[in-house]
């Protein structure tokens, strides 16, 4: 069995591959794979001509982020100890893959690990996705060191440490390959967004730690496939968040969380309507409707512990939005 495969999911990302693949090939020692989600652009031809050394997995349709990775990784199951799941719009740094995989091999109780994720456009500030390590508040809302809601910090070096976190960013994460498959990978019903947080939650419930490795930095463009401020992303985030919390919390705890989230997010829908942003209000309402429609088909997650104890949530914040919006706590240090 080989040590690691770097796996990039692609959908109509020829321009991203042109920009970011050179750094991956230059700075990586492990096999590089591209899973193609039935692209209709010239991505495959570009790879064939310019990067013949990169291994390809060609899917017959676009399964989204979650389903695409599940289908692609199933074809190489059992060949590698670790996967590095890497967005197509990430520039990596020297020794990035070897350093993180070496750390994972020395810390066998960790299921996933992410590096420090900085902005590719503004290299001195953190990226929105993952930043300096991801956490969950008590209501399942994600936040990061270096990024609280829409406030993003400059990188001053204070997050160059190695710590335990609640979740690792799907923009760049090392994951134990056998555990990924044992837990059935990402939830393919998510299609995109929140799937890595859900997977990490299931890993922690199964007794595995999630790590952040600040000594390694990568640079993420972000928004290459779906703009952060889009109705579709808002819809997916709310719908998938509800599904994730429903799967991983007790029924009584979910009900309490649901009441708070529903109030906040329906108030947001009213606010969107008052601003004339009807498509965003509709996204919120549709997210709740579609979650309700499929709720009975969602299976509660029941971990097989095998002598392990559940890893508790590291985030200690009650409601991150209240802290950010009302209390004015804009940075992690202020929480």
TrEMBL record:
Entry-linked InterPro entries: Glyco_trans_2-like, Nucleotide-diphossugar_trans
Domain (Glycosyltransferase 2-like) ranges: 6-112
SUPFAM superfamilies cross-referenced by the UniProt entry: Nucleotide-diphospho-sugar transferases
Taxonomy, superkingdom: Bacteria
Keywords: Glycosyltransferase, Transferase
A Pfam family annotated for this UniProt entry: Glycos_transf_2
Transmembrane segments: none
Family listed: Belongs to the glycosyltransferase 2 family.
PANTHER family in UniProt: GALACTOFURANOSYLTRANSFERASE GLFT2 (PTHR43179:SF12), RHAMNOSYLTRANSFERASE WBBL (PTHR43179)
Protein name per UniProt: Glycosyltransferase 2-like domain-containing protein
């Amino acid at each position: 069995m080989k040590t690691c495969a770097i796996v990039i999911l692609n959908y109509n990302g020829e321009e991203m591959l042109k920009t970011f693949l050179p750094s991956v090939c230059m700075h990586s020692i492990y096999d590089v794979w591209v899973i193609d989600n039935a692209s209709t652009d010239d991505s495959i031809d570009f790879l064939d001509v310019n990067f013949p050394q990169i291994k390809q997995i060609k899917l017959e349709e676009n399964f989204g982020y979650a389903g695409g990775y599940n289908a692609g990784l199933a074809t190489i199951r059992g060949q590698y100890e670790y996967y590095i799941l890497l967005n197509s719009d990430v520039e990596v740094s020297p020794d990035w893959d070897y350093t993180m995989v070496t750390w994972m091999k020395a810390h066998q109780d960790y299921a996933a690990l992410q590096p420090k994720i900085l902005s590719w456009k503004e290299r001195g500030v953190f990226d929105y996705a993952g930043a300096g390590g991801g956490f969950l508040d008590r209501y399942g809302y994600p936040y990061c060191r270096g990024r609280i809601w829409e406030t993003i910090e400059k990188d001053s070096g204070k997050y160059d440490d190695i710590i335990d976190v609640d979740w690792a960013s799907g923009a760049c994460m090392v994951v134990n390959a056998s555990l990924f498959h044992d837990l059935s990978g990402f939830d393919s019903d998510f299609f995109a967004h929140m799937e890595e947080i859900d997977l990490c939650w299931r890993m922690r419930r199964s007794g595995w730690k999630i790590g952040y490795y600040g000594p390694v930095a990568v640079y993420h463009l972000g928004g290459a496939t779906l703009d952060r401020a889009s109705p579709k992303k808002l819809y997916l985030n709310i719908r998938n968040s509800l599904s994730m919390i429903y799967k991983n919390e007790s029924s009584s705890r979910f009900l309490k969380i649901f009441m708070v989230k529903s109030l906040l997010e329906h108030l947001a829908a009213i606010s969107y309507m008052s601003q004339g942003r009807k498509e965003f209000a509709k996204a919120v309402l549709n997210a709740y409707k579609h979650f309700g429609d499929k709720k009975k088909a969602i299976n509660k997650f029941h971990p097989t512990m095998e002598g392990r104890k559940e890893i508790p949530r590291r985030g200690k914040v009650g409601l991150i939005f209240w802290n950010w919006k009302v209390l004015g706590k804009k940075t992690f240090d202020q929480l």
